[in-house]
Structure formats: C-alpha cells, structure tokens
Amino acid sequence: MNAYVGITDYEWYGLLRDSMPISEVNFWQPGGKRRFQALNEGELFLFKLHSPNDFIVGGGLFAHSSLLPVSLAWDAFGESNGVSSMTEMRARIERYRSAPADPLDDYTIGCIILTQPFYFDRSRWIPIPSDWDRHTVQGKRYDLTQGNGRTLFDSVQDAVRSLPDSVVSDQLKKYGDPVLVKPRLGQGAFRLVVTDAYDRRCSLSGEKVLPVLEAAHIRPYSRGGEHHVNNGILLRSDLHVLFDRGYITVARSNNLEVSRRLREEFENGRDYYALHGRTLRAPLQAVNRPLIENLTWHNDNVYRG
User: Fold this and answer.
1) For the domain that residue 106 is a member of, what is the CATH number?
2) Sign of CA dihedral 194, 289, 216, 275
C-alpha cells in the first residue's frame, strides 16, 4: 500500500480545517494537463505545507482524479475546493500559472478527490521524512510497508488516534500493516465518478457538452440510495429532471421507457418519445454499470408508467 504526500499552501489547508466537518475535498492542481495516477482508490493522500512549514498536517482517502473546467469543479465542490468563492479560485489559478487573467477562459485544472479528510492539531504535525527532497514541486509517493514509508505510516496512525472517532475510518487507527480503506463518496465525488464512468456522454442522448451533463441517482440519496457509481446514470439536464420526476425510466432490459403521462399532462413530449426504447449506453467496465436492483426500485417507486 502506498501514500502520496502532496504539497499545498496554508490558505487551502486553513480554510478546510476551519470548515470541518466536510466529507470530501478537492486537492486541485492549477496546471490541468495530466490526471493524477500515483495512487489506487482507498490509499492515503497526505497534505504537506509549503516550506518553511515542512510538516504533514493532515490527509484523506484517495477516491478519484479527473481534469475539469474550473466552473464545474466549483459547482461540484464549492468551498471544499479550499477557497471561499469562484472568483478567489480563478485568481489563485492565475497566480499559480503566472498568467494574465482571461475572464472568458474556463481554465482546466487537475482534480484529486479525497474523502474523509482529516487535519492535525499543530502539536501533532508530522515532520517530513528524512529522504524528502526539498526541491520537490508537487509531491512524492511512499511505500507504507517499508523504510521511511512505514515510519511515516506509524506517525500518521499515532496522530490520527488523537482525532474524534467520527472523523476518520477505524482502519487507520488500528495497529498493524496498512490496509486499503473503501472511500465513502460524497455528492461531488459521485458526480465526477459517474461523469468519467460514462465517458462524459449522456447515456441516453449521446450529448457530449459537459456543462449540461449531470450525474443522476437512480435511487435518491434521500430515499436510501448511495453515492455509488452503480447507483448513477449520466444524463442531459432535461432528461435528469424527467428521470427524477418519474416521466422516464430505464427498464431491467436497459431500454428507456417514456411515460404516457408526459403527453397527457403537457400535451407534448415528441422529442422524448423519439428516445423511447433506446438502449442505455452503459459504462465499459461492468463494475460501474447500474445495479438491476436500483433500476427495479426506480421502476417500481418513481416511474409514472
């Protein structure tokens, strides 16, 4: 098992620490050219402050990485981006890029989504490992099973045990070898995971314009559904509304059904009836596809028939 120590500024860290409890954060990178691929889902991502504060001050569980326009990153995570406004976020990107402001540019940024974030009191800050290169720009990965990585993991465990039980998984507090912890997705992470699982295309219409695509819960979170990719479908915004209100559904056969109530109540719906019977464009990876029991629940409890 690995951990990644990522470098951040005190402003980002301080706002999030003072905003607790927050279930997920976006550790974003202003360059936006490459997706973060240093960790597997459930491994540790740790926060190190810029020098001269050479300490590890918290962390979280890695859930997902993506490249997003800043507008969508703000819509998905808001202040969980570690900034208080969209205006401030754009200003920081421009500062880090050392580029003139362009109000028409929806900057692409790298997004590293972490769940169950935790922050140490200053007395619990962890000095950086002895092999840390002070010229490191973004961060460094450590093998937690040996050498400096194991020493680091032991220090993190000691610091984590000082936190309230509700903040972080019990697995991180247990003595013994490091183990993967299944991250619990929040609303923002759910949106990104579903969007990328469906290759950024509406599963019914094929629409590719990212700002109008939305991650729809098959079984709503408020009614017992989970923020999990197999409880999600990527839909164009109008189809999302109709799905949530029961005017359309996806049958067990993975085909779209459009309710007769659409015509009866609104005396229209021609464009939607043209989609009737269309097969859901499911994710390529089977583990990301909708669960039959979720589709059945929507058919039985939401669809107007």
Assistant:
1) 2.30.130.30
2) positive
